[in-house]
UniProtKB/TrEMBL annotation:
It holds the Pfam family TauD. It comes from Nyssa sinensis. InterPro entries: AlphaKG_dependent_hydroxylases, TauD-like_sf, TauD/TfdA-like. Residues 41-322 form the TauD/TfdA-like domain. GO terms for molecular function: oxidoreductase activity. This is TauD/TfdA-like domain-containing protein. Keywords: Oxidoreductase.
Amino acid sequence: MPESFFTEITIPLQKTYNAGHLFPAVLSPNPNKQPSNLSLLTGAIKAHKPWLQSLLHKSGAILLRGFPVTTASDFNDVVEAFGFDELPYVGGAAPRTSVVGRVFTANESPPDQKIPFHHEMAQVPEFPSKLFFFCEVEPGSEGETPIVLSHIVYEKMKEKYPEFVERLEEHGLIYTRVLGEEDDPSSPIGRGWKSTFLTKDKSVAEERAAKLGMKLEWTGDAVKTIMGPIPAIKLDKTRQRKIWFNSMVAAYTGWEDARNDPVKAVTFGDGKPLPALIIHDCLKIQDEESVAIPWQKGDIFLIDNLAVLHSRRPFNPPRRILASLCK
């Protein structure tokens, strides 16, 4: 039984949703068993993967806390134990660095910057179904990774702004971003086109963009990427509910740097501008419904990218969160 190794615990700030599911679910080692070590943990994950997947399906996110995971390499072993296929980070916006195996740094933008709620890579057609985050270095203070259930955001927005949501469902969204040649770590969307398309060759970048359905407009060494129209609302088929699957709020309030104006970064799929008041109210709804659990060293967050949006609060260094994306 998985309960012989894992104990489901409750911690402050969790929320309870339909049918009494806790969000997120939190697992710790069973205190009545021998102290856990890394190989026992990876063995238990492999042995109880169907149970863990069922828990993730019910809750949307699982926090593993109190296990002996201390290094990036340990974290990579845990990700591997789950057995999900790796998703390469092609088309994403965040500046990141590869660390070991399937592990890279989470967004490396400056600590004073908030990263708004988004589904990972919602602005491109091929996005991860699951994300792992790992706290290698606990934040000096703040720096939580708040999460919110996507279908709750959809339901609240549909109730409050039915016509706006109808337009979103009908037209989708277009995302526009200007990329420099190299990465700009001072920007939350500072990934350059070489890193974005994993090439130094403009013609290869063109091919990879075309596969994503993305249009490129070159101006010297910089390029404007135009993505869409793509859907802003999706059906989560496994749970049979509609979800708020987009990067609208993140783009409109956060895609700002020397090259980019966030208000122009996202429009309705017919090219018409989005209403600022509704976008900012959506951000408020996301904040109100979210859960922000302070990171502890060794924490691993497994997030269902279809069910849950995530964000990042500003922080006082140090803080090092690592990530891994899965198909």
